[in-house]
Amino acid sequence: MKLKAFIGIDIGSLATKIVLISEGRLIDHRTERSTYDFKRIGHNLFDDLLKKNDLNREEVFLMSTGYGRNTIDIADDRVTEITAHAKGTQFFFPDVHSVIDIGGQDSKAIVISKKTGNVVDFQMNDKCAAGTGRFLEVMAHALEVPIDQFGDLALKSNKSASISSTCTVFAESEVISLFARGASKEEIASGIHRSIARRVAGMAKRIGVGPKLVFCGGVAKNPAVKKYLEEELGYEIETPEFPQLTGAIGAALIAQENNTN
Amino acid sequence: MDDLSLLSDLSLFLKEKKANGVKIVAYLAHDNIPEELLDAAGFFPLRMMFGGNDDLMDASHNFLPPSTCAFAQSCIGLYSTKPNIFSFLDLVDFFIVSNHCVSDICVSEIISKHFNIPRLDFYVPYTKNNSSLKYFKLELLELKKRLEAITGTEITNEKLFESINKYNEFKRVLLKVNELEILGSEKLKVLQRAMLYGPEFQPDLEKFIQYVRENPSSLLETSKDILFTGCSIFVNDNLVDLIEEGGGNIIFFDTWIGSHYSSQIINDSSIQTEKDPLDLLVLKFKDNIYGDHTVPNFLEQKVALIENYYQKYTKTKGRKLGVINHIIKFCDHISLLSSFLKERLQEKGISVLNLERDYSRANSGQLLTRIEAYLEMME
Fold first, then answer.
1. How far apart are CA B227 and CA B310, in angstroms?
2. Interface confidence: ipTM more than 0.90
């Protein structure tokens, strides 16, 4: 049976993203919290996507990516999120040179060959949460600010409190001592966002990232991280329309490439 | 042959040695400890090449901060928890340590102090000019005297020449293992076993080589070939399995467990002409281009050796070759050099994955992603 569409599913530690691509166009997508049951969430999203788009299992190719790529047994193939993000960002920005992806559990920097569009180098954060979406979540919780308002709060301050700890746990204690010393919530929020931007920019510079640089992953929706990353890197960076979906889109595009050539 | 059976066999082997009155000298510093001298003195040199896990590293934190070399943490963990499979460490009579690696010094001090194992010091110069070589010989003489004082027996030149020849022959055979076209995990297990048992393993090694030559394995054509460099993979570490799970196969171990150790061969003409066997050990020290704590030119030599192997391999095999540089967390000198090494090799068109990690099994998923992404990059 001829394949009608290509589905990419990016199972991240915090969110699962699924997209449907047909003839190189993004047709449909879904995002849901991954919870502890990656497999069930993945199956539900996949079934829903097929149903809503009136497709049978045999008519689609499912490519999984992300932290939980090996857990979804219905996938036809899998690819790492590094390769998937590189491909997915090219969907939005064909002339991309570098990618910074900050997800819930990890952050990564990728350099892409302009000639081939393939990954030429990459760097991932270590197993600690600093420099990831989880770091922002913990800090937003400590400041009692909803996560979707955290970036805006940071940008209200023209001063950034200094957060020197690179460890999430120590940084949380540092935030409490900053409060005790009279720093405002906005200043602290700004300092937290600067610390994540500094850490990720440092990691990215080590592999020679440069413009055009695309910032993706869930954290790319945070305006303060984007602004401070631009300041650390010294140039403007781009954010795609759906920054959380680039991995899933990349997986679907790779599936399409592998099955049409 | 898994790690558990290797360790269990080693335990029996060492118990037998002890029962025959042989003293066991464990050592950490990998590159310049004169095994030949220890052997000639009648000791059994036991290389500490056991990797850890989360429990062993945690167990070391009563003695070391968590930001210490992961290998150092594991060694202390082995002593402080004494897991059953490592109970043979109770049989160790002495620890010998050189000054090349600061972590090794700390580990040996802690083990000597808290676990009552006497320490023998062997200080090694960081460079190889004439004064350093004279100093190295003086250290060899000191160690020789100490070993003789312990046993009450003179280490004769004849005995030392015999040991030098024995280790030379053993390493010649060992060199052939790295060239065999077998699965990396299988090769690693053989190299590890050989380096733990020493020349006594040589007959088994020869049989193994012959068996592989007569029964060539059908390597998966789809696996990606890897040259593995940096920190060695120790016994009880699952890294090689992760690399194979990700679709890679280590075809060459450019590490101390691998080509570095087996290349420490003293040339026959020097053995025939040299009157003093200690001078042969000095020569071996001088010619050791793999001493990663030695200055200057270590990086240049390493880049040249990898490039040479890479060019030869890709030309003769017609296959792509990836390079994984293994960096054990907080192993400072490997870590600091890693970005220079990567940069220099990339300039020559050789891609490198700098794989920094500790022995934790908890981040296997993230490690696998890095390995798989690198292998995808090679496509």
1. 8
2. no
